Amino acid sequence: MRDTKVAVKICKEYDTDIVGTALKDGFDLLGGLNHFIKPSHTVLIKPDIYNCTEPNVAKTTNPNIITALAELIAKIGAKCIIADSPKGDFNSSTLDNAYVKTQMLQSSNNGHATLNTNDKFSVITNPNGEYCRDIYVIDAINDADVIINVGKFRCDKSLGVIGCSQNLFGLIPGKFKQLVKSRCYTLKSYYNYLIDLYEALENKIVLNILDGVVGCEANNDPRILNNILIGENPYSVDATALKIINQSPEDSLLLNESVRRNKFNFKFQTLGDDIEPLVCSDFHYTTFLENIKSGSKSSFKREYNRNQKRPIINSKLCKGCKVCVSTCPMKAIEMQNAELGEHAAINYDKCISCFACLHNCPYKIIKTKTPIKYNAINRAIKKSLHSKQD
Ligand code: SF4
Ligand code: SF4
Q1: Residue range 262-281: mean pLDDT, rounded
Q2: Burial of 271 (0-12, 13-18, 19+ CB in 10 A)
Q3: Domain chopping of the chain, boundaries
Q4: Class of domain 309-369
Q5: Which of 65, 211, 235, 306 has fewest C-beta within 10 Å?
């Protein structure tokens, strides 16, 4: 597990010098930037440019933070590359557009960092992945010795604080992101997919920085928060962010899953500035469950999209040959013993509906079915949306 200490720095404006001082002070609290970066390193800076918006919208990492960070890295003598995959296709024209809109182009103008133009992708492997072992990522990762993950302090109506841990999702190229989301039936499986990704890169991700000078609330309003958070562990940085918006980290499903998988623990320590004066008790933060209760259409749609066909194994007809177990790329099938003998059973938290098992079962006993509970949810959703429109 990466060290869970979090450096908290009050920072009230995006002036590059002021941001640079806050970053340097934060790094010093954690042992200094040169504790993490060597002169021979190529450092991949991973900003949050997913939304591809201007900095004043506060939904992307502010370019001055990236400029200041690149300057500090250059002083050590290391090389810097700025790389991310915004939403939409992953190609040179999407990247060019994102760099202009988010002003990352200016961040590279001082010569301390270059912008990634490689629009290829590759596969990284996490042999211990619970939900995915082979993960598609942007190819630029392979050229980097270390990664500094620079997230934005923003909230999503369904996913809560995007922060540093969910910022890693941007390493998945272009529209693969939508495919992953649509194939993850539950938030639990989505969060664990992100933890699989983090685990695959854990040794490379040396620092996580959260741009909370101006954050963004779940209702899309920018919100002055006056902070920059830095830590080795993305989950402790996000837990600190939750405390700042007066939410309990212990209530976060993502953080609980990261604890279960030994990536984080709730006994983390903050260093530097006191977080009490930064706490913002009326920050608009909507959780998925609250959304469901309040009838938000966006989260209903998200749930609705998950209403996909799934493989169903008829345990009475299963011959126990285990072909499906070895075929499943997600390790989602296990053998179970029952009165009628050994049979295969699917863990739907892991299944991504690729149907490899269905096609490979020599006895053709795997069928597809839409899960009843999702049908029930959909009926409730349609009824709710219908009554809202009335
Ligand atoms: S559809 Fe079958 S092979 Fe594919 S992930 Fe689900 S259980 Fe595994
Ligand atoms: S491949 Fe078919 S018969 Fe063999 S264990 Fe799987 S479901 Fe059962």
Answers
A1: 94
A2: middle
A3: 6-293, 309-369
A4: alpha beta
A5: 306
Residue in 327, 333, 363, 364 to alter for ligand 2 test, most ligand atoms within 8 A of Cβ: 363
What residue ranges in the chain does DSSP mark as E strands?
A: 6-10, 42-47, 79-82, 114-115, 121-125, 134-138, 146-156, 160-161, 205-216, 222-231, 270-272, 310-313, 333-338, 341-346, 366-369
Q: What is the pLDDT of residues 10-67, one digit of tens each?
A: 999 999 999 999 999 999 999 999 999 999 999 999 999 988 899 999 999 999 999 9
Among residues of the chain, what percentage have pLDDT more than 90? 56
Average pLDDT over residues 243-266: 91
Burial class (CB in 10 A: 0-12, 13-18, 19+), 340: exposed
Q: Closest ligand to 355 CA?
A: 1
Average pLDDT score, the chain: 85
What dotted CATH number matches 6-293?
A: 3.40.50
Q: Quick one: pLDDT at residue 182? A: 63
Please give the DSSP secondary-structure letter assigned to residue 34: G
Condensed to tens digits (0 to 9), the pLDDT of residues 142-196 reads 999 999 999 999 988 777 789 999 999 999 888 777 767 666 666 777 888 899 9
> Which of 79-93, 122-136, 166-180 has the highest average model confidence (pLDDT)?
79-93
Structure tokens that stand for 386 in this block: 């219908």
> Does 6-293 match 309-369 in CATH topology?
no
Beta bridge partners of 208: 149, 231
Indicate whether residue 311 lines ligand 1 (CB < 6 A).
Answer: yes
Which pair of tokens denotes residue 250? Answer: 């212990």
Using the atom order of ligand 2, give the atom closest to the CA of residue 366: 7
352 lines ligand 1 (CB under 6 A): yes
Contact residues for 387 (Cβ-Cβ < 8 A; gap 6+)? none
